[in-house]
């Protein structure tokens, strides 16, 4: 008589927030899959639903609470994890029926809560699935051809507007050999682009600086430059996110010029006015930053620099804001995101004097977006007629959509391709750029 295997319990996942949260979701689900669980694509088919929350801004907390409420209404058996797990009392006060609440990066506690809510199906056949480390579970929530690679957790900065250290703790770097092993596995599974993420990529390794590791017969130090070089030997494209402009960032630019790392830097400048930066408790030497940007472009002319800025920070005057606009005109950044200042419970900036009225925030936000859109349009127009490498994200019957080396997924622009129905997702192809608008490029694959 044939053995009937028990049906494995099914887990649903709602993942909110930044790519770092997405990586946490991948690791949680990977661990659960190794324990015999299967994933449910909807609420109705799930034995339990995980909601991985974001708690960085009050608006993000509201979105997280809405997601928890929806999961409870649709399923009823809900476990909450992520950054907002730090406020368990708030969650339980609003939703007393949640089964468990855990904080960010607490993989084992989440898995234990799932085991209790929906015990795994035990079988000598199913239990042969290897567990492994949480980094090695192999489950991805991104498309096959690109992957986020988290190199550290937490942050040592104490910016006055940010509560990340209270949510995720101080910097804790992963061993370089563990990161490289994960990168190698991702590439072997089809990843073409590695997106390196952390709270502070430039600070990688400062907590384990005297602990080099052996990797393929050579010593690798836990330092951003060493790690970027080794990653460049593994993956076709390596993109660096959340880079603070420390002096040693200059050492990475030659790797970009050599083609080992994509000529792309995601640097959260946040503002340019020295007075505002001081209130933010951020480095305030704006002239030095402009000088370094010019130096980076002299070494690697094609480097794309993306950044984000906060407008309406407490005490920001019209003079401060105009200073930012003038700085942006001179810096000519390729990609810019802007945010209106939003008080976050627990942030020191809440207690600063001279909060900016909401209508002034909105007006400044519109002005900075208009200014940076014009800069973006001019820089993209300059690419018309050039040949660029493009990674393909989607393919239709006739056309395709991809990204250039200057474009990260979800946050930057796209390249729309005609006569490209023959391409495959994940292909990296040469493209002739035919047109451009404020944010995107249009082109055709080069004839082979």
TrEMBL record:
Domain of life: Bacteria
InterPro entries for this protein: Elp3/MiaA/NifB-like_rSAM (IPR006638), Methylthiotransferase (IPR005839), Methylthiotransferase_CS (IPR020612), Methylthiotransferase_N (IPR013848), Methylthiotransferase_N_sf (IPR038135), NA-bd_OB-fold (IPR012340), Ribosomal_uS12_MeSTrfase_RimO (IPR005840), rSAM (IPR007197)
Annotated localization: Cytoplasm
Co-factor remark: Binds 2 [4Fe-4S] clusters. One cluster is coordinated with 3 cysteines and an exchangeable S-adenosyl-L-methionine.
Main subcellular location: cytoplasm
EC number(s) per entry: 2.8.4.4
UniProt GO cellular component terms: cytosol; ribosome
Catalyzed reactions: L-aspartate(89)-[ribosomal protein uS12]-hydrogen + (sulfur carrier)-SH + AH2 + 2 S-adenosyl-L-methionine = 3-methylsulfanyl-L-aspartate(89)-[ribosomal protein uS12]-hydrogen + (sulfur carrier)-H + 5'-deoxyadenosine + L-methionine + A + S-adenosyl-L-homocysteine + 2 H(+)
GO terms of biological process kind: tRNA modification
Domain MTTase N-terminal: 9-119
Gene3D superfamilies in the cross-refs: Methylthiotransferase, N-terminal domain, Nucleic acid-binding proteins, tm_1862 like domain
Binding site for [4Fe-4S] cluster 2: 155, 159, 162
Cofactor(s) essential for the protein: [4Fe-4S] cluster
Domain TRAM: 381-447
Record-annotated Radical SAM core domain positions: 141-378
GO molecular function: 4 iron, 4 sulfur cluster binding; aspartic acid methylthiotransferase activity; metal ion binding; protein methylthiotransferase activity
Keywords, in A-Z order: 4Fe-4S, Cytoplasm, Iron, Iron-sulfur, Metal-binding, Ribonucleoprotein, Ribosomal protein, S-adenosyl-L-methionine, Transferase
Amino-acid positions noted as binding [4Fe-4S] cluster 1 in the UniProt annotation, renumbered to this chain: 18, 54, 83
Pfam families referenced in this protein's UniProt entry, alphabetically: Radical_SAM, TRAM_2, UPF0004
Key word Protein biosynthesis present: no
PANTHER family, per database record: RIBOSOMAL PROTEIN S12 METHYLTHIOTRANSFERASE RIMO, RIBOSOMAL PROTEIN US12 METHYLTHIOTRANSFERASE RIMO
Protein family membership: Belongs to the methylthiotransferase family. RimO subfamily.
Functional description taken from the UniProt entry: Catalyzes the methylthiolation of an aspartic acid residue of ribosomal protein uS12.
Protein name: Ribosomal protein uS12 methylthiotransferase RimO
Lineage: Bacteria, Pseudomonadati, Pseudomonadota, Alphaproteobacteria, Sphingomonadales
The gene coding this protein: rimO
